[in-house]
């Protein structure tokens, strides 16, 4: 949930969503933090297993906010957050692996920068995996867009792509999309 507070946008999460806040610092428990202090706080909370902070670190490293820019380290943290069930991380990782929206300006989508696309080679299996996990995520602000992407993608897939998708959906226990892919392959 994002709320307006004066001229800044503050995300209401365990710490603060770095994507919205770390650029100008953050108010954390009535304390004003600089970007480097916000980075340090995220690092400490990530070490305790806080998945929002792990995602925040991915963003901080991708932009060089409070730390040196390091896209490889950003990708490590993004994968870690996705593995911990962070929905935005799952969706962003699927977008990077599938190479969808590259060069597009879509306001509704979670935007990733071109350097994410360059750090990750297209990998349909990994992309499908993370997209299916995002679609199963409890966060509807993630699962609904993931479902929309899946609907659009499966309609445009070739039979061989649908077969690969079917295999991934089977492997990750997603019966609904397994059935959809299977029906479309046989048509």
From TrEMBL:
<protein>
    <recommendedName>
        <fullName>Sel1 repeat family protein</fullName>
    </recommendedName>
</protein>
<dbReference type="InterPro" id="IPR006597">
    <property type="entry name" value="Sel1-like"/>
</dbReference>
<dbReference type="Pfam" id="PF08238">
    <property type="entry name" value="Sel1"/>
</dbReference>
<dbReference type="InterPro" id="IPR011990">
    <property type="entry name" value="TPR-like_helical_dom_sf"/>
</dbReference>
<dbReference type="InterPro" id="IPR050767">
    <property type="entry name" value="Sel1_AlgK"/>
</dbReference>
